[in-house]
Known about the structure:
By secondary structure, the chain is mainly beta. The protein has helices at about 1-5, 60-65, 105-110, 160-165; strands spanning about 25-30, 40-45, 45-50, 65-70, 80, 90-95, 95-100, 115-120, 125-130, 135-140, 145, 165-170. Mean pLDDT is about 90; it is low at about 1-15.
Amino acid sequence: MQANIVSVGYGGPTGRTGSLTPGSEISLRATTSCCTTDYVRHQNNAAVISAVTSSSSALDRSDATWIVRKGLAAGSCVSFESRNYPGDFLRHYNYRLYRQPMDGSAQFRTDATFCPQTGKSGTGTSFASYNYPTRYLRHYDYNVYVASNGGSNTWDSGTSWSDDVSWVVSSPWAP
Length: 175
């Protein structure tokens, strides 16, 4: 599977620029006032936010590092490949985000594609779900979801929504 991923332009070399350029390694920092030292990371396959610092373990720093790839469903968007689990991508399933191995399906490709735009709070970048364009990557109760503003799920709460869906694309934490 990994050879197939590399052969179609995913996987392979990475840069360390901290930008949304395909091949760059990044970390995504929350902008909400409660959580400005928290980063998107995977833990037990689920996407969560937690504090990451230079004194965090190498594993924690790697779990909070993502490789930017051309969107698996649309080249104008992005997908996030795990730094320490090559071939695994950040994807939503039932609105919750997970790190899962790319299975090659059209459903996986759309679930793992996010379209960057100016941060909804006026800071950073917000990432709209490719297949649910009114839903954005959002942290809520330390978990990461694709959430709408004011929808029916608890994580769709309008409270702090603009801040919770805005992220700072920063230099990677992985050593």
